[in-house]
Design goal:
The structure holds two protein chains of two kinds. By secondary structure, chain A is mainly alpha-helical. Chain A folds into two domains: about 50 residues, no CATH class; about 210 residues, MetI-like (MetI-like fold), CATH 1.10.3720. Chain A has 14 helices and no strands. In chain A, helix 4 runs parallel beside helix 7 and helix 10 packs across helix 14. Chain B has a single domain, classed as MetI-like fold (Orthogonal Bundle). Chain B contains 13 helices and two strands. In chain B, helix 3 crosses helix 13, helix 5 packs across helix 8 and helix 8 crosses helix 10. Chain B is globular. Classes of the chains: A mainly alpha, B mainly alpha. At the A-B interface, helix 1, helix 4, helix 5, helix 6 and helix 7 of A face helix 2, helix 4, helix 5, helix 6 and helix 8 of B. Chain A: Its main location: membrane. Chain A: It holds the Pfam family BPD_transp_1. Chain A: It comes from Azorhizobium oxalatiphilum. Chain A: Keywords: Cell membrane, Membrane, Transmembrane, Transmembrane helix, Transport.
């Protein structure tokens, strides 16, 4: 460790860099990793505006001309509009319901003292670790029994149940930190319990609620396993299974697959461009303490 | 994970309640709610939980003692479990999943930590890089799988093109089609998606470390290698272990990526328990839902036991106080 003595004091504004590499090597590694993460995505983007003939000629050429009509074709002719709207309806409904139901339960668990509080919390929370197969096969049978198999309503219900534990867990943690004084004051002013939830907890907890909204939205937008098991009708496919089915039918049509994939990614990327910090916080909410 | 339950709040504020005794009946203890109010808040969540999580879970375990073909249910006792014990494919799937769940998180967490350190060391554009490196976390497994199937493509995939360009064309192969490399190829893809997640969490943890300690080490002329080994890693240990457990849980459940990239093939080289359950329940025309229920029930027990065990092991080590 001879580099220990070579600690110049001139670069104090920067924290010291690993001496074993030096600045140039570090920059190289960082540059390489950036290409590694963003490269595949940019490659996909270029392919989405080229047709399959052009792609086969050279997979890595810059698009010329930019064939934006690829998106129109994918949207209209390859039924990606159906998949997109199915996804949107299911995910938005499920996220709205799970947030409201989860927030109500989280509030009761965080605020009130009653027998069995921690038991209920533990029961709801523990199902976070359940492997999905333990409910998958039975949910399939149950939805068939109740005529909800192959319906967007059934899928929405299942999605609500999938995200409920995480929602309750995250919101309970946040709500518990709201100062009790606020609630005491509200009681003095004659607020009822429901009013307290509606007029104090929801507004004050909004940043936390936004975080869980984002997390739930991304996770459900990307959900594949339950959708593929519970939906069989092509008209009712969500985006992930729609893309997968399209790929199965048109394995060679790389340009069109790329355009379809881009359609599913664009909403997420637009949201990310505007709310990158919020999205990062939302996605890591369970792990950062 | 269970330590997260600590900051639950209700216990912390107990003294506050005691000192604030209700003066009249009307302004009753704000920490208490009448039973109907609790029902209003809790019943929707509990109904969803019991209807769509607890009941299906119990039903799966119950079903594992039957052979179920369509409407027909034949009780078979433990026959499914006996068959499972002798099912070679199941054991291959278990082996693959265990390799993935125990080994791959180390790769994820180490990459995340190193990336976080690189950003912490004060490289330019750190803000942009953090956002860029996080992008794959937001992509769905379907998107990631398709992208990487192209990257691994034999004729024109990036990996083989690079190898050929470097004159190592002999090494070019069908990465997902070769049983020797398929599992590793899928694991690398999974790590590509999740490294950014670990990076962000590590970076947040590094930033919350006490500055005095790190500055003191600088005064002591402590090199980065030593600093990493003796200070940063020990101080971040709770975070790193927590990330390991999270990654472990994720990998015990892994399905989407494998299913789309390889379908568990070639020759069961990437078969995981999740893909095997799916195949037996919905893909092979065996039409029996009892046997896959047995696999799911066994795996449910294994995952729960493994998580509890990991938490126990990691808990028993003393946390570094600072």
């Amino acid at each position: 460790m001879t580099y220990q003595n070579a600690q110049p004091h001139g670069i104090k504004p920067f924290k010291p860099l690993p001496r074993l590499f030096g600045r140039g090597a570090l920059a190289l590694v960082i540059g390489a990793y950036t290409v590694y993460t963003l490269g595949p995505f940019l490659w996909l983007a270029t392919m989405s505006v080229r047709n399959t003939g052009e792609i086969s000629a050279d997979h890595y050429a810059w698009p010329s001309p930019f064939r934006w009509e690829q998106f129109r074709v994918a949207w209209v002719d390859s039924a990606f509009d159906t998949y997109f709207w199915n996804s949107a309806i299911v995910v938005v409904t499920a996220v709205a319901v799970v947030t409201l139901v989860g927030a109500a339960a989280a509030h009761a668990l965080a605020r009130y003292r009653f027998r069995g509080n921690r038991i209920i919390y533990g029961i709801l929370f523990s199902s976070i670790i359940f492997p999905p197969q333990i409910t998958l096969i039975s949910l399939y049978q149950i939805l068939v029994d109740y005529n909800l198999y192959n319906s967007l309503t059934g899928l929405t219900l299942v999605y609500i149940s999938l995200q409920l534990p995480l929602t309750v867990y995250l919101l309970e943690g946040f709500f518990a930190r709201i100062p009790q004084d606020l609630f005491d004051a509200a009681k003095m002013d004659g607020y009822g319990d429901i009013e307290i939830f509606r007029r104090i907890v929801l507004p004050i907890g909004m940043p936390a609620i936004a975080t869980t909204l984002i997390l739930n939205f991304i996770q459900l937008w990307n959900e594949f396993l339950f959708a593929v098991v519970l939906i069989s009708d092509p008209e009712k496919r969500t985006l992930p299974i729609g893309i997968r089915a399209f790929m199965g039918d048109h394995f060679q049509d790389i340009g069109m697959i790329a355009a379809g994939v881009m359609i599913s990614v664009i909403p997420v990327i637009i949201a990310y461009a505007f709310f990158s910090e919020k999205l990062i916080r939302g996605m890591t909410a369970g792990a950062v303490k | 994970m269970s330590d997260m339950a600590k900051h639950a709040g209700t216990d912390v504020e107990a003294p506050a309640r005691a000192s604030r005794a209700p003066r009249t009946r009307r302004f009753s203890d704000p920490r208490r709610a009448s039973f109907p109010v609790l029902l209003v808040f809790l019943v929707p969540a509990l109904a969803i939980y019991f209807g769509l999580t607890a009941y299906p879970a119990f039903r799966t375990i119950y079903d594992s003692f039957f052979t179920i073909e369509g409407m027909e249910r034949i009780p078979v006792g433990f026959a499914n479990y006996v068959a499972l014990w002798q099912d070679e494919t199941f054991w291959v799937a278990v082996r693959n999943t265990f390799i993935w769940a125990f080994v791959a998180p180390i790769l994820d967490v180490a990459t995340g930590l190193l990336l976080a350190l690189a950003l912490y060391a004060g490289v330019p554009f750190a803000r942009f890089l953090r956002i860029a490196w996080f992008t794959p976390v937001l992509l769905s497994y379907v998107v990631v799988a398709i992208l990487w199937m192209w990257i691994y493509n034999y004729d024109w995939g990036v990996v083989n093109e690079l190898l050929r360009a470097m004159g190592l064309g002999d090494l070019a192969r069908s990465w997902l089609g070769d049983p020797n490399t398929a599992l590793a190829a899928v694991i690398v893809t999974h790590a590509w998606k999740w490294a950014g997640f670990n990076m962000v969490v590590c970076l947040a943890a590094i930033h919350s470390l006490p500055r005095e300690v790190l500055e003191a080490s600088e005064l002591d002329n402590c090199g980065w290698g030593a600093k990493l080994r003796y200070m940063i890693v020990p101080m971040l240990k709770p975070t790193l272990l927590n990330l390991y457990v999270l990654a472990f849980i994720g990998k015990m459940k892994v399905f989407d990526l494998v299913w789309i990239m390889t379908g568990g093939g070639p020759l069961w080289a990437t078969e995981t328990v999740s893909t095997y359950v799916y195949k037996r329940a919905f893909n092979w025309n065996t039409f029996d839902l009892g046997y896959p229920s047995a696999i799911a029930a066994v795996w449910f027990g294994v995952v729960c036991a493994a998580v509890i065990l990991l938490n126990k092991i990691f808990k028993s080590k003393d946390r570094l106080e600072y």
